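Incident log entry.

Two folding requests arrived from the same account within the same minute. Monitoring flagged them as a possible duplicate submission, but the sequences differ. Recording both here for audit purposes.

Request one:
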Amino acid sequence: MGKIIGNWKIFHTFASTCYAMPYSLLPTLLLQILVVGYTPGPANIYSLAMSLRHGRKQSLVMWLGLLAGFSIAVTLMAVLTHFIGMAFGQYVGYLKYVGAAYIVYLAYRILRSSKQGKEKQGDCTFLSGMLVQMTNAKMLLFDLTAFSTFVLPYSNSLVNLLEVSAWLLIAGPGGNLVWLLAGSYLRRFFTKNGRQVDVVSSIALVLCALYIVIY
């Protein structure tokens, strides 16, 4: 009997370590993912603009960069949260200036290539996607918020942090892919007004950059 109780305690400890977040909080996490990940933001607008300009095939290469950049960033955030806690969160705010500057640069590139009439120019590469995501202060701060809300009150386990990180992939690259596919389907419709679309996309990116800095 004592052996059975001992085994049950081991199993309970293991289960608590693997599933620290209460299942009742999962709908709340998914709702936050929906609101933050699928509303307009730097990576989403950039995905849409690149899809309209370059089409689905080339934009998917850029999206792989977004996926890689987000995966690297959220994993690093999870590791830092595990070892340091939320104390380092104040330093993430400084990254927003780097991200805002890069977003403005991308807006300039879109506008410039459109003015020159060179459709295949622009930063629609794996590297550009990775840089957009790794300097996306909106998503990095959301990652920290998710960790502090859904993990740290129950556990500081790196396993638990990485589990929530996996859910956050739906918010980042998941939202980016939806916007990219929307752009690929709308590409024919916007072909006749390419210059106007580029101007609007550039303005939207600059507004995102301003919002990031002000917020």
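Request two (distinct sequence, not a duplicate):
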Amino acid sequence: MNNDLQQEQTARINFYALLSRITMSEIDEGLLKSIEEDENMLAFFPTYASWEKKGKMSRKDLIEKYLNVDFTNLFLLHLIPYESFYVRDDQMMETGGDNPVQQVFMALDFRVELDKARVMSADHIGVELEFMYMLCDSERKALADKDFEAAAEIARIQYGFMKDHIMEWVPMYLLNVKSEAGTAFYYDVADLGLEFVMSDFEYLSKLEKNGYNYEV
């Protein structure tokens, strides 16, 4: 695996892992500290970096008084972070085995512990992003082993899942988060997530058009 491809895969893995974690549960002091103290990472949170409240409060107070409240509003109460809500005509959540996303996960042996993840259904935005993280990591390992056939098959799954599922609703949901965000942090989360999923789908689309030839 050449350096450019390795860097591309590492970046994709890191972005999916970060976005999955942030959209799945409330931010904690450790993760917030790691974002603030890494200049490269903080660059993806420009509004938060210059947020007035950030410089006046401890991380603990900032989380408890503002960020947790905003997370609850955006991911638990007022907005619905589930694919079925966005794609079904009746806007009902599909929490059972008939959920198309759950069927994809079962076919690929991706297990979702709903109670542990604190989500109601497998088609939660954080779970779908975690699935993409897992696929990207598997693709990276295949490329490191020079198993280009396996890597291409994993990339095909990624492209299909992005096209049939994530791109059908995640951009719309993140636009709503961006519009409704009450803090600079979650505004930046939505902006980063929106930009990343759009660019990653573009990357996967080009790979698909090239016949999954990693040498091109």
